Amino acid sequence: MVGRRILTTKEVEHTLHRMALEIMERHYGEALPILVPASERGQPIAAYVQSLLQKEGIEIQLRDSYPPHPEPILLVDDVLYTGKTLLSRLHDLMALYFPPRVEILVLVDRGHKQYPICADYVGLRLATTLQEYVRVKALPEGWEVWLE
Fold first, then answer.
1. What is the tens place of the pLDDT at every residue in 47-60?
2. Residue 77 CA to its chain's centroid (Å)
3. Per the count of CB atoms within 10 A, which of 14, 35, 41, 140 is most buried?
4. pTM for the whole thing?
């Protein structure tokens, strides 16, 4: 692969584990939000975070679609770039109802936002140029993050 590896599979695993613990800490003593992938690329990350929380004895729901009634939501995606993907999912959500809380988890926030979207849980903040591309590459043993 052309480019530079930013995070190895072990580093991504460690980062996602840290973020799962942050979710537990932030929601200590209250109901956990429902994990909802913001995109197809967010689906496996959301499922992995769910499994990490389950290993800690925490039950958290994962849904591909929004819940039938207002509940706190945690949108999950791989990379936050312009914010268009997350804004689109938020728009779809708000067309149905207004949840009591919406939080956002991303593995990488590369900046260059065009919309006021801010992640609550960030694995890595990475300064990039507009010509660079951040790729989260799925491997059998996990993920790697590359800057191309």
1. 999 999 999 999 99
2. 4
3. 35
4. 0.93
Q: Do 125 and 109 form a contact (C-beta atoms < 8 A)?
A: yes
Q: Please write the tens of the pLDDT for every residue from 61-78.
A: 999 877 778 899 999 999
Residue 65's identity, in one-letter code, is: S
| Ranges of each domain in the chain | 4-24+32-63+75-147
Q: Is the dihedral of CA 18, 22, 25, 30 positive or negative?
A: negative
One-letter amino acid at 138 equals A
CATH architecture of 4-24+32-63+75-147: 3-Layer(aba) Sandwich (3.40)
Cα–Cα dist 20/25, whole Å = 9
Contacts of 105 (CB under 8 A, 6+ apart): 19, 23, 45, 49, 74, 75, 76, 77, 119, 120, 121, 122
